[in-house]
Write a structure and sequence with these properties.
The structure is a single chain. With 138 residues, this protein is α+β, with helices and mostly antiparallel strands. The chain has two helices and six strands, in the order αβββαβββ. It is 17% helix and 32% strand. The chain has a five-stranded mixed β-barrel with strand order 1-2-3-5-4. The longest helix is centred in the N-terminal third of the chain and has 18 residues, at 5-22. The radius of gyration is 19 Å and the shape is globular.
Length: 138
């Protein structure tokens, strides 16, 4: 069965765009809520397709709780002024995130306040979205 050039072109286009279609939505995050976490950076993952801040924060009894905060891609973060070295293990930070809807320990990055008081936000957020946490790092 002969294949037309148009059919082959369409098939190639679908194969090329398939990875973009596989990208997850942000429905798993509750973008109507914000949670502020004060804690210590365990790891800053500068990886594709999304970077992550791994933070450890104490619960109400003082036990360590780990959170994984999803960020933009390293390419976009770089264009927004970030560097892969901005967060290091042991840094004391305050992170604002939109929590996961299922209640597990993670969320979508909104902003981070470094120990020197500098605030780094996500400029891709909707206008009016807060970019400055209220609490000071502890």
């Amino acid at each position: 069965m002969p294949r037309s050039p148009a059919f082959l072109g369409l098939a190639a286009a679908l194969l090329i765009t398939a990875p973009a279609l596989a990208h997850h939505s942000f429905a798993m995050f509750d973008r109507q809520k914000e949670v502020t976490l004060k804690g210590t950076v365990k790891e800053f993952q500068w990886t594709n397709p999304h970077s992550f801040i791994e933070i450890e924060t104490p619960d109400e009894k003082g036990a360590a709780v780990s959170y994984s905060i999803e960020m933009n891609s390293p390419n976009n973060l770089t264009r927004q002024g970030w560097k892969s070295t901005v967060l290091k293990p042991g840094d004391k930070v305050t992170v604002v995130m939109n929590p996961l809807r299922d209640g597990s320990h993670g969320g979508l990055f909104v902003s981070v306040m470094l120990s020197d008081g500098k605030v780094l936000g996500d400029p891709t957020r909707l206008p009016g979205a807060p970019v400055s946490p209220q609490a000071k790092p502890g």
